[in-house]
Write a structure and sequence with these properties.
- The chain contains ten helices and twelve strands.
- The protein is α/β, with parallel strands linked by helices and 340 residues long.
- The chain is globular and about 65 Å long.
- The protein binds 5'-O-[(R)-(carboxyoxy)(hydroxy)phosphoryl]adenosine (KG4) and zinc ion.
- Zinc ion binds next to α4.
């Protein structure tokens, strides 16, 4: 009988310390996530030094809880992109465990993880993505559009030039005195607001696949400067609509250009209900299938890192090519293809 690989994934790129055990690329035995939100809340954003300290304090406990006494074949960790201190903690923990258990160590691109998270449903991973597809990876640190031909086969079409979409939500929340992380707070306020109340810009940047959300954030700050008693729900609803229109419009333009029939959306902002509904409706009207990451796996977690590692191992074994293991940490790591 073929051996079912046991992979321990480790994630520490930003403000979640997480470890997950994945068996046979399918069965998610554990996915322990320690969120540092409480530590960063009063600063309205992630403070790198606090994040590193919290990762260092929690990582051993999180790994222990995720792994227990289970046998292990590989250790995988997110080697970038991310905050240098957090990446360092993840690497040291992963390498120590791998050497202690005498198993190989694999580095995984965190953003690839966000895409692979779309393959999970509950505690099971299956090949749900339908290639070729356009992927929208949208989080607090990144907003990227990729043309994806298969697992490990990417062409990055565009990234954000400045703020990521999640970062714009967080900064607008801060301007409005709402709590961190801003995405869920802004969405909650938006429920009772009018989406057409304020004509915020849609930064479409025609002719490029890039994004830019800092101007939109500035438009909100000017609006607040010029209105003594703004209607907060209206500001939130109009801002959220502008972000969602921009993300959906650009994704659908890429779908048309690259003639694909499928879209995948991953990352923290993929939890946004308006984004989910709007993408589903507008893509659905064109006969395009959309796979969203499940909400509970949309923010940072180690299950997605373990699954990305599994796909890499599988590819290396099937192709006879060496595993591209990427174990050097790189805070600015770009997505690179490793498969066909
Ligand atoms: O993927 P993630 O956990 O961390 C990064 O890799 O950055 O994403 C966190 C980001 C935060 O900016 C947060 O405000 C945003 O995702 N977010 C949302 C929602 N839930 C989380 N943004 C909009 N709507 C949401 N419901
Ligand atoms: Zn992330």
């Amino acid at each position: 009988m073929k051996k079912e690989l046991a992979i321990l994934g480790i994630e520490s790129t930003c403000d979640e310390t997480s470890a997950a055990l994945l068996i046979g690329g399918r069965e998610l035995v554990s996915n322990v996530i320690y969120s540092q939100i409480e530590e960063h809340k009063k600063y309205h954003g992630v403070v790198p030094e606090l994040a590193s300290r919290a990762h260092a304090a929690k990582i051993a406990t999180v790994i222990n809880e995720a792994l227990g006494n289970h046998p292990l074949d590989y250790v995988a960790f997110a080697s970038g992109p991310g905050l240098p201190g957090g990446l360092m903690v993840g690497r040291v923990a992963a390498q120590t465990l791998a050497e202690f258990k005498q198993v190989p160590l694999i580095g995984v691109n965190h953003l690839e993880g966000h895409l692979f998270a779309c393959d999970f449903e509950g505690t099971t991973a299956q090949e749900r993505l339908q290639f070729p597809l356009i992927a929208l990876v949208v989080s607090g640190g990144h907003t990227e559009l990729w043309y994806v031909k298969g697992y490990g086969n990417y062409k990055v079409l565009g990234r954000t030039r400045d703020d990521a979409a999640g970062e714009a939500f967080d900064k607008v929340a801060k301007l409005l005195g709402l709590a961190y992380p801003g995405g869920p707070q802004v969405s909650k306020q938006a429920l009772s607001g009018r989406r057409d109340a304020i004509a915020f810009p849609r930064p479409l940047l025609p002719g490029t696949w890039e994004f830019s959300f800092s101007g939109l954030k500035t438009a909100v700050s000017y609006y607040l400067r010029d209105h003594q008693t703004p209607n907060i729900p209206d500001v939130c609803a109009s801002f959220e609509q502008a972000v969602v229109d921009t993300l959906v419009t650009k994704t659908l333009l890429a779908v048309t250009k690259y003639k694909v029939k499928s879209i995948a959306v991953g990352g923290g902002v993929a939890a946004n209900t308006l984004l989910r509904e709007t993408m589903q409706a507008r893509a659905g009207a064109k006969g395009i299938n959309v796979r969203f990451v499940e909400r509970k796996l949309s923010s940072d977690n180690a299950a997605m890192i373990a699954l990305a590692a599994y796909k890499k191992i599988q590819y290396a074994q099937a192709s006879g090519k060496p595993l591209k293991d990427n174990i050097n940490i790189d805070p600015n790591m770009k997505v690179r293809s490793w498969g066909k």
